[in-house]
Amino acid sequence: MTSHWCDFQNADVILHCGSNSAENHPVSAKWLNRAHERGAKWIVVDPRYTRTAELADIYCPIRSGTDIAFYGGLCNYIIEHDLWQHDYVLNYTNASYLLDPDYGFDPATGLYSGFDADSATYSNRSWHYQVESESHWDTAPGGAYAWAAAPGVPAFTPPTVEHPKRDMTLADPLCVWQQFKKHYSRYDLDTVCAICGMDKETLELVYATYAASGAPDKSGTILYALGQTQHTYGAQNTRAMCIVQLLLGNIGMAGGGVNALRGEPNVQGATDMGMMVNEHPAYLKWPNTTDRKSLRDWMESQTYADGYYTNKPKFLVSSLKEWWGEHATADNDYGYDWWPKVHAGGLADTIIPSFEMMEQGKIRGYFNWGMNPANSAPNTANVRQCMSNLDWLVVVDQVATESATFWKAPDMDPASIDTTVFLLPCALIFEKPGLILNSGRWIQYRHQAVEPWDEAKPDYEICDLLWREIRALYEAEGGANPAPVLNAKWDYYVDGKIDPRPVAWALNGYRVDGTDFARAEVDLCSGYGELAADGSTACAMWIYTGFWANSEAPLDPEKQACCRRGHEDPSGLGLYSNWSFSWPSNRRILYNRASADPAGRPWSADKVLVEWTGEAWKTFDQPDFVAAQGGVPVPPNDNAFFMLWEQNARLESYAMEDGPLPEHYEPFESPTDVNPLNGAFSSPCIRFADYPSTKRGTNEEYPIAATTYSVVEHWQTGGQTRMCPALIEAMPTQFIELSPELAAEKGIKAGDKVRVWNNRGSAVVDCVITHRFKPMTVNGKLTHLVGMTHHFGWAGVYATSESMVNDLTPNVGDPNTQVPEYKAFLVDIEKA
Amino acid sequence: MAEKAILFDTSQCSGCKGCQAACKCWNDLPSPTALNADAPSFTGTYQNPPDLSGVTRLVMTFSEEQGGPKGIKWAFGRRSCQHCGDAPCATICPAGAIFVDEATGLVTTDAARCIGCRFCASACPFDVPRYAGDRGVINKCTGCVDRVANGLAPACVTTCQPGALSFGDRDEMVARAEERAAVLRERGYADAVAYGADEVGGLHVIQVLKYGAAAHGQRPDPAVNPAVQLTQVMKPVTGAVTGLTVAGLAAMFALGAGYKRDRRAYNPATGDTLDVDTREVIKHGDGQDTESVKEHILENLPRRKGGDHE
After folding, report:
1. Which residues of A touch B49 (CB under 8 A)?
2. Domain range spanning residue A520?
3. Which of A461, A544, A713, B309 lies 20 to 30 Å from A476, alpha-carbon distance?
4. Does position A374 have pLDDT exceeding 90, yes or no?
């Protein structure tokens, strides 16, 4: 989230698209209701009428998988009706930047410039800006970048600052604005309605209502979740939302932002910690075999020429110091070479290819920790077959999940499976102390409430036991590559027992001199500005620095910022800056510089986050810009997005794998045969579509568009919630929702079981026949939509089910993230 | 303590059923889960379980109707005790097992006194009290008077995240409901009403019903069966002899309400509840020793006011 949960109350317009927060994030409703009571307009765009839609003012149906058409149409509407926020777009985005003369997009092929058909990838060379002039870092003593040449700092050639060529009149045909306008001019209302399936009147109402947040003093928030991301163009969906919010000047405003509603209590924390295969903790990149082969390569390819990420070397070296401790020295590049290197592209080892590698015998053993892919991965029929090729499988979970019992699935033959399965019971959240981080980036400490059940242990304790055994083996026997194991710093003990508090010191960062973990003496850093690239500081998570900075009481969580419980709110906007700690730097609303105009005057007198008084910045939130340097106030400038080297936000972005602007493509399996917007039909960069296991179905065989989702009564694969009788009683089964029209066509009545199938699998589920799903006309063809919940499986005690809904979902992925396409695929149905 | 009420604003309800689950948890009520069976009780809607029962005091209802500005009206409703001002269940209860909590006006229960006669179920204009067969007692919302007496809100209210449920002085709840209904009407929900201020002597669950009473499963004009008042004539006559009261009222009520009910009798010597016709023990009492029999009889004499934990 760029803002936080409480900030929803400040919105003037709320847009849910690809999320159902009243249902799946119940606490959000508290803050949304407050905005609504104040008079905010509330819009829900969703394939079905959800519980959130019932709370909202406007409901707009949409065919699953067509969000970019919807957002592209909104961009076009905003431009056509001149509803974009001119000063914001001109000064705070790259609208005025001139693109490379080779830049182009061809609607006939649906391809941007730079496509290589053989590898199905793009070269982004032509998506970059034209350069006006260049400048260089001043690393001389006393210069702004003197630190880069200081003793102990790894040698690297600082990047050259390329100042893009700009046209502040926005008239140049090669400027981002003109290209942008041209691109989305194709997304007219009729085309969007034909693709997405809603009626024009509703679409116009949605567009007009949301675009009203483009008034400088108004803010609109977009709430999204997996309905946006689980597509073969999920990352582009997210980009589309960002672009809309930039056009309307909603990023950085209280009540604005692009807000990812995370589906698990700590999933934001997991993301920060490097959940993505290619991301090192705190959004740095792992070494690879191309542009990050050595520490020097890393510094030169990753360090931004301008903006805050000029400091990346400090964060990386501090991280290395935490990984390897005293073994990390300037002479050995701080141990950089001990880190593993990710494959080219960095994403070859994500979940979908993992199973492919099991099938090929490349992966022989598998740690399955805190997830349940035999239930939650796409194409689970394929997953359990692949798992049966493993020699061993370790499942760490609170209950015996489908993954732990994959060999017991109704279609499996246990006698023919040789996999040894170990189930390590782990403690529930309330059975261990530790840190948790919510969608609003708040870090909080949770005390232990009860002892773990029976032999269950906290995950970190299981980790520690494994670590000690593995390290002992390497010590005794050596091995292929012992250095990383033997040199790793692993001293997170209190009284000889593994403990989350020393881990907190490591995450927060500290000065190496003056710190002795064994004696619980730590010289903690109070902000990441204190981190250095010369090996004098250690920090595993630079973005968290400050959350645990009280060196006087390093063992007492209650005396750390993450445990603060202050109710003060001088802003009147629900920032609650003294409640817990929000990364980075306790900043509650990211990009808050953009809440004020270029002269530093707030766009809205009611939503003041930062304000230039003429002499200094008056701030209610931690400024997300350089407000002062060396104690001297820095007068307002246009650098509202200083985490990018341009320091302006990107309407057009060269950093995406699959195109600089979001373009509508059809899902891997689509109910229509036409893409009126381009000749590519589906994404040219779609991943894994060539795997035989994906078994693509056509809309002739499977005419019904399907999607999947959660209900509030259950959580994820149901491992925990299906153990709770009150929740089973509240929602006892998995079901398919379908319209009365489709039910009549198929002879299905309330109370019937329904068989749902496609090439990948078949599931028998209960049914909910409801007008909340409506047939729609897609490109002139009557199209039925259905949706299914996915919380059930054969494992567990209560309400088990022989059928696995994820047997039906396709194992294809987004080219940027490789997130699977759970949200749009094809099926057929019949009365079971 | 001033008269209290729960306020339920359907326009702020997300239908999450947190209240339903919290009610189960606080009151330690079981949830039937058929082992490894494929959901025998699924209703084909989001409304699960389908209705109140001997183990369920609160159910969220989900009613769908086409129409309205969004094309569909999905009315969430709260199906539970409304805590009537003139509570017919308390009036008719021969054993003092259902009574009005003086401090709050909430209609609460004392299961230990319940003889399982189920007159309350017949008398209720909202069809709320349910018989828990295995325990031989009536089950209904107690208003969490135990929590309220200790300064807390009822469990359902505390758990409500969207803020659809509130708890406070009844006057204030009524005023807020009226105000909110007016806002909703202004916002295009023409049928929005406040409900509960005057019904059945004034309810202690006040509701804001976005689509009107019927759409949310509420009776637009709830009425108490006149037989309930009629039974009052009998009460002084039969007096403290509970067993006789039961028999007498059973006959009268069955006649007046048109119900054919099982007839029950209470044996003060053993504490057992008997079926009058078959003489079978339906519920074993705890009055096995002299002291507890005496206590039981005393408890059943003049009706005491107050909650379970005096």
Report:
1. 729-730
2. 278-344+489-562
3. A461
4. yes
